[in-house]
Structure formats: C-alpha cells, structure tokens
Design brief:
SET_dom_sf, SET domain-containing protein, three-stranded antiparallel β-sheet, histone H3K27 methyltransferase activity, 5 strands, 135 residues
Length: 135
C-alpha cells in the first residue's frame, strides 16, 4: 500500500497480486490524475487491449473543462491512513460556468463539425470489447 503523502504512480492490476504498472518514470499525463477529496471523480479507468498489449485508459465520466484536473478514485487499497479532506476537486454545479467556459463550450461545439468519424467496426469493437475490464 502507498502512503498518501508520498509520490506513487503505481497502478495495481486486479487478479495479479504481484503485478503493478509503474508510471513514475514513463507514461503520459494521465499518471498525474489525483484522488478527489469530495468523492466526485471526473474520470474512470479501464483496462483495454491493443493488439497483444494491455493498457490503462481513462474515460471521462462527465464534462472536463480545459485546464482542470483529472480526478480518479484511487480506491481503498491506496490509502494506508485516512483519506485526505479538502475542497480541491469540487464539482461545479450547473449555472456556475464562467464566460470563458461558455466561450470554450461554444468553440467546442463549433469545432465538432470538423470531427472525422471512422466506420471501422473492428477497430471500434477492439477498443470497446468485453475483454476490457472496469477498474
């Protein structure tokens, strides 16, 4: 188990007690997802297969504003002591969007028509198959 005060980028793999993925030196920005103090995670993790390799993917569970943090529930096994408390990671309630966020939302909607959709069913099924596992 990790100490909540230490830097830990280990991701334990369910059903493999002795195997963890260490993103301390390699990986991408998703390794910096923090635990929400208020329990309101804005993403969830899932194991997915890409060819013969297993990956951890983070999926948004709601809207994530630009320049905001990713909050992922670390689970009970992460904490050796009490879980930290505070107001960081608090979710906004509707109606609290700033003018900048409203402008960003309009920009997002304007760009959505530029999105290229791929009709590759095999690719879609591979990424969204029953072989993936919720964490």
């Amino acid at each position: 188990m990790a100490k909540a005060t230490g830097r830990n980028y280990l991701f334990d793999i369910p059903n493999y007690r002795k195997i963890s993925i260490d993103a301390g030196f390699t990986g991408n920005e998703s390794r910096f997802a923090n635990h929400p103090s208020n329990g309101n995670a804005n993403c969830s993790a899932k194991y997915i297969w890409s060819g013969d390799e297993k990956h951890i993917a983070l999926y948004a569970t709601g809207r994530i504003w630009r320049k905001s943090e990713l909050f992922l529930n670390y689970g009970r096994n992460y904490w050796t002591g009490e879980m930290p408390v505070g107001d960081y990671g608090a979710e906004r309630t509707s109606g609290q969007e700033s003018e900048e966020e409203e402008s960003e939302e309009q920009e997002y909607e304007d760009q959505s028509s530029e999105v290229e959709f791929v009709d590759d069913v095999e690719e879609h099924e591979r990424w969204h198959s029953d072989e993936s596992q919720d964490l």
